Amino acid sequence: MLRDSGMSVGRIDSRYIGINQNLLSESTFYDPSYTEINQAFISCFMNYYTTELKVSKDKTYNAVAYVYPDFKWDWKRQNSNVSISESSPSTAPDLLDAMSNNPKLKVLVLNGIYDLATPFAGTEYTFDHMGLDKKIKGNIIYKYYEAGHMMYVQNESAAKFKKDVAEFIFGCLK
């Protein structure tokens, strides 16, 4: 007998689809993109960690902080008692300060169109609403990838990513 199950879409990369067995849940901790992508990165890192860095294999490495039951993000801005926002944190005020204090500062914004962790067009919205002076708005460069949050996991996007970052770095040297 077949049982209907719900679909779970990857948060880090929505091209990855999984099965959600609990159809009554409002959310799930299972992210098919995390499961598919991160295991390869963690395996490579653990090999590097223990062979190249010579860290003892009895040490535990946790890829995410959420494994600690008492872990909580500190959403307060540095030198301020004001909480940024626990639902949608923003570093826009800090970036606005940095760009205003250094009008030569260039910013490269990389967007994966299948990224649900940082919603598509969210960066454009943020920069459009920062109140940047017109003189420094041109210092922001946007690049888009046919990929998710980690655009370098797809070969075509990885090549474009490398080219875009190199062009940005060399462009800043001029």
Describe the protein.
The protein has 5 helices and 4 strands; from the N terminus they run ββααβααβα. Helices cover 34% and strands 11% of the residues. It has helices at residues 32-52, 92-101, 122-128, 134-137, 155-172; strands at residues 6-9, 17-20, 107-112, 140-145. A hairpin with a 7-residue loop joins strand 1 (6-9) and strand 2. With 174 residues, it is of the alpha+beta class. It is globular and about 50 Å long. The chain folds into 2 domains: 1-73, no CATH class; 83-174.
Note the topology.
Elements: E1 6-9, E2 17-20, H1 32-52, H2 92-101, E3 107-112, H3 122-128, H4 134-137, E4 140-145, H5 155-172
Parallel strand pairs: 3-4
Antiparallel strand pairs: 1-2
Total strands: 4
Number of helices: 5
Distance between the termini: 66 Å
| Total of domains | 2
Task: Spell out the helices and strands N to C.
Answer: EEHHEHHEH
Strand portion? 5-15%
- Rounded to an integer in angstroms, the radius of gyration calculated over CA atoms is 20 Å
Name the helicity range. 25-40%
Strand order of the largest sheet: 1-2
Overall pLDDT, averaged?
85
Which tags fit this structure?
alpha+beta; 2 domains; two-stranded antiparallel sheet; 4 strands; 174 residues; globular
Summed up:
The protein has 174 residues and is of the alpha+beta class. The protein has helices at 32-52, 92-101, 122-128, 134-137, 155-172; strands spanning 6-9, 17-20, 107-112, 140-145.
